Amino acid sequence: MNVDGHDCYYDDAGHIYMIDGLEVISVTQALVEASIIDTKWYTEWARHRGSRVHKAIELLVKGTLDTDSLDPRIRGYVDAYERFVDETGFVCLEVERKIWSPHSRFAGTLDQWGVFRGGHTALVDTKTGALQPATGLQLSGYEDGRNQETGEHTDRLLGLQLKVDGKYSIKTYKNQKQDWRAALRVAWWKRVN
User: Fold this and answer.
1) What is the model's pTM?
2) Whole-angstrom distance, CA of residue 9 vs CA of residue 35
3) What angle do CA 53, 56, 60 make, to 5 degrees?
4) pLDDT tens-digit profile of 89-148?
5) Distance separating alpha carbons of residues 88 and 83, to the nearest angstrom
6) How many CA atoms lie within 13 A of 153 on its CB side?
7) In the Cβ-directed half-sphere of 184, how many Cα atoms lie within 13 Å?
8) In angstroms, rounded to a whole number, what is the distance separating the alpha carbons of residues 177 and 145?
9) Residue 39 carries which DSSP code?
10) C-alpha to C-alpha distance for 122 and 158, rounded to whole angstroms
11) Which domains does the chain have, with CATH numbers?
Protein backbone atom coordinates (compact mmCIF):
# COMPACT_ATOMS: atom_id res chain seq x y z
CA MET A 1 0.00 0.00 0.00
CA ASN A 2 1.14 3.54 -0.68
CA VAL A 3 0.39 6.43 1.70
CA ASP A 4 1.51 9.93 0.72
CA GLY A 5 4.31 8.49 -1.44
CA HIS A 6 5.48 6.09 1.27
CA ASP A 7 5.51 2.32 0.86
CA CYS A 8 3.52 0.78 3.73
CA TYR A 9 3.42 -2.94 4.47
CA TYR A 10 1.91 -5.14 7.16
CA ASP A 11 3.23 -8.62 7.97
CA ASP A 12 0.28 -10.46 9.50
CA ALA A 13 2.33 -13.44 10.69
CA GLY A 14 4.74 -11.28 12.68
CA HIS A 15 2.26 -8.47 13.40
CA ILE A 16 4.84 -6.02 12.04
CA TYR A 17 4.06 -2.69 10.36
CA MET A 18 6.68 -1.26 8.00
CA ILE A 19 6.97 2.12 6.32
CA ASP A 20 9.56 2.49 3.56
CA GLY A 21 11.14 -0.81 4.61
CA LEU A 22 11.60 0.20 8.27
CA GLU A 23 9.61 -1.30 11.12
CA VAL A 24 7.42 1.20 12.93
CA ILE A 25 5.67 0.94 16.24
CA SER A 26 1.99 0.04 16.41
CA VAL A 27 -0.56 1.98 18.45
CA THR A 28 -0.91 -0.87 20.95
CA GLN A 29 2.85 -1.51 21.11
CA ALA A 30 3.42 2.17 21.90
CA LEU A 31 1.04 2.00 24.86
CA VAL A 32 2.58 -1.24 26.12
CA GLU A 33 6.14 0.03 25.74
CA ALA A 34 5.26 3.34 27.42
CA SER A 35 4.01 1.23 30.38
CA ILE A 36 0.41 2.38 29.99
CA ILE A 37 -1.01 -1.04 29.10
CA ASP A 38 0.09 -3.89 31.36
CA THR A 39 -0.11 -7.19 29.46
CA LYS A 40 0.68 -9.44 32.43
CA TRP A 41 -3.05 -9.93 33.02
CA TYR A 42 -3.76 -11.08 29.46
CA THR A 43 -4.28 -14.81 29.09
CA GLU A 44 -3.82 -16.84 25.95
CA TRP A 45 -7.56 -17.57 25.90
CA ALA A 46 -8.40 -13.85 26.20
CA ARG A 47 -6.13 -13.06 23.21
CA HIS A 48 -7.64 -15.91 21.19
CA ARG A 49 -11.19 -14.88 22.13
CA GLY A 50 -10.54 -11.26 21.17
CA SER A 51 -9.03 -12.24 17.81
CA ARG A 52 -11.92 -14.59 17.02
CA VAL A 53 -14.53 -12.00 17.96
CA HIS A 54 -12.81 -9.31 15.88
CA LYS A 55 -12.67 -11.64 12.87
CA ALA A 56 -16.33 -12.64 13.28
CA ILE A 57 -17.39 -8.98 13.43
CA GLU A 58 -15.30 -8.19 10.36
CA LEU A 59 -17.01 -11.01 8.44
CA LEU A 60 -20.41 -9.93 9.76
CA VAL A 61 -19.86 -6.33 8.59
CA LYS A 62 -18.72 -7.59 5.17
CA GLY A 63 -21.76 -9.87 4.96
CA THR A 64 -19.78 -13.10 4.77
CA LEU A 65 -20.13 -14.51 8.30
CA ASP A 66 -21.32 -18.11 8.46
CA THR A 67 -23.06 -18.02 11.84
CA ASP A 68 -23.26 -21.82 11.92
CA SER A 69 -19.45 -21.95 12.02
CA LEU A 70 -19.13 -19.71 15.08
CA ASP A 71 -17.42 -21.13 18.13
CA PRO A 72 -20.20 -21.29 20.76
CA ARG A 73 -17.82 -19.62 23.24
CA ILE A 74 -17.82 -16.41 21.16
CA ARG A 75 -21.40 -16.44 19.90
CA GLY A 76 -22.63 -14.20 22.75
CA TYR A 77 -20.05 -11.52 21.92
CA VAL A 78 -21.21 -11.44 18.29
CA ASP A 79 -24.83 -11.28 19.48
CA ALA A 80 -23.84 -8.30 21.66
CA TYR A 81 -22.35 -6.54 18.63
CA GLU A 82 -25.50 -7.16 16.59
CA ARG A 83 -27.57 -5.80 19.46
CA PHE A 84 -25.37 -2.68 19.60
CA VAL A 85 -25.90 -2.09 15.86
CA ASP A 86 -29.67 -2.68 16.12
CA GLU A 87 -30.13 -0.41 19.12
CA THR A 88 -27.86 2.46 18.05
CA GLY A 89 -28.22 2.42 14.26
CA PHE A 90 -24.44 2.33 13.86
CA VAL A 91 -23.34 1.70 10.27
CA CYS A 92 -19.77 0.46 10.00
CA LEU A 93 -18.03 1.94 6.94
CA GLU A 94 -14.48 0.76 7.73
CA VAL A 95 -13.64 -2.44 9.57
CA GLU A 96 -10.18 -3.68 10.62
CA ARG A 97 -8.62 -0.80 8.65
CA LYS A 98 -4.87 -0.30 8.64
CA ILE A 99 -3.77 3.26 9.38
CA TRP A 100 -0.30 4.62 8.70
CA SER A 101 1.56 7.72 9.81
CA PRO A 102 4.84 8.08 7.91
CA HIS A 103 5.42 11.46 9.60
CA SER A 104 4.97 10.20 13.18
CA ARG A 105 6.33 6.68 12.45
CA PHE A 106 3.45 4.58 13.73
CA ALA A 107 0.71 2.39 12.33
CA GLY A 108 -2.17 0.29 13.57
CA THR A 109 -5.44 -1.40 12.80
CA LEU A 110 -8.57 0.39 13.92
CA ASP A 111 -11.55 -1.83 14.71
CA GLN A 112 -14.37 0.17 13.18
CA TRP A 113 -15.19 3.59 11.85
CA GLY A 114 -18.71 4.51 10.89
CA VAL A 115 -21.79 6.66 11.30
CA PHE A 116 -24.68 6.79 13.77
CA ARG A 117 -28.21 7.96 13.07
CA GLY A 118 -28.04 11.70 12.68
CA GLY A 119 -24.71 11.58 10.87
CA HIS A 120 -22.27 11.59 13.81
CA THR A 121 -19.08 9.72 12.94
CA ALA A 122 -17.50 7.35 15.42
CA LEU A 123 -14.34 5.36 15.83
CA VAL A 124 -15.22 2.23 17.81
CA ASP A 125 -12.80 -0.06 19.61
CA THR A 126 -14.37 -3.38 20.61
CA LYS A 127 -13.26 -5.23 23.72
CA THR A 128 -14.26 -8.61 25.14
CA GLY A 129 -12.80 -7.59 28.49
CA ALA A 130 -13.24 -4.50 30.62
CA LEU A 131 -12.86 -1.03 29.16
CA GLN A 132 -9.77 0.65 30.56
CA PRO A 133 -8.54 4.26 30.62
CA ALA A 134 -5.89 3.21 28.06
CA THR A 135 -8.69 2.49 25.58
CA GLY A 136 -9.08 6.26 25.21
CA LEU A 137 -5.41 6.64 24.32
CA GLN A 138 -5.65 3.72 21.90
CA LEU A 139 -8.65 5.33 20.18
CA SER A 140 -6.81 8.66 20.10
CA GLY A 141 -3.88 6.97 18.35
CA TYR A 142 -6.14 5.45 15.71
CA GLU A 143 -7.92 8.78 15.24
CA ASP A 144 -4.55 10.55 14.93
CA GLY A 145 -3.39 8.13 12.22
CA ARG A 146 -6.69 8.15 10.35
CA ASN A 147 -6.81 11.96 10.50
CA GLN A 148 -3.28 12.22 9.10
CA GLU A 149 -4.30 9.98 6.18
CA THR A 150 -7.74 11.39 5.38
CA GLY A 151 -7.75 14.89 6.85
CA GLU A 152 -11.10 14.01 8.48
CA HIS A 153 -11.92 14.36 12.17
CA THR A 154 -14.13 11.84 13.96
CA ASP A 155 -16.97 13.11 16.15
CA ARG A 156 -16.87 10.36 18.80
CA LEU A 157 -14.35 7.89 20.19
CA LEU A 158 -16.14 4.90 21.70
CA GLY A 159 -15.07 1.86 23.66
CA LEU A 160 -17.55 -0.96 23.09
CA GLN A 161 -17.42 -3.78 25.63
CA LEU A 162 -19.07 -6.91 24.28
CA LYS A 163 -20.23 -9.46 26.84
CA VAL A 164 -20.64 -13.22 26.57
CA ASP A 165 -24.31 -12.94 27.62
CA GLY A 166 -25.16 -10.87 24.51
CA LYS A 167 -25.15 -7.52 26.31
CA TYR A 168 -22.82 -4.59 25.75
CA SER A 169 -21.71 -1.34 27.32
CA ILE A 170 -20.36 1.81 25.70
CA LYS A 171 -17.95 4.38 27.02
CA THR A 172 -17.23 7.67 25.28
CA TYR A 173 -13.65 8.89 25.45
CA LYS A 174 -12.40 12.39 24.79
CA ASN A 175 -9.71 12.76 22.17
CA GLN A 176 -6.40 12.63 24.04
CA LYS A 177 -4.13 13.33 21.07
CA GLN A 178 -1.43 15.09 23.11
CA ASP A 179 -1.27 12.29 25.69
CA TRP A 180 -1.23 9.69 22.89
CA ARG A 181 1.66 11.46 21.18
CA ALA A 182 3.53 11.71 24.50
CA ALA A 183 3.14 7.94 24.97
CA LEU A 184 4.38 7.39 21.41
CA ARG A 185 7.45 9.57 22.10
CA VAL A 186 8.20 7.67 25.32
CA ALA A 187 7.90 4.32 23.53
CA TRP A 188 10.27 5.43 20.75
CA TRP A 189 12.70 6.82 23.35
CA LYS A 190 12.69 3.47 25.16
CA ARG A 191 13.33 1.60 21.90
CA VAL A 192 16.25 3.84 20.97
CA ASN A 193 17.79 3.88 24.43
Assistant:
1) 0.94
2) 26
3) 135
4) 999 999 999 999 999 999 999 999 999 988 999 999 999 999 999 999 999 999 999 999
5) 8
6) 4
7) 24
8) 10
9) G
10) 7
11) 2-192 (3.90.320)
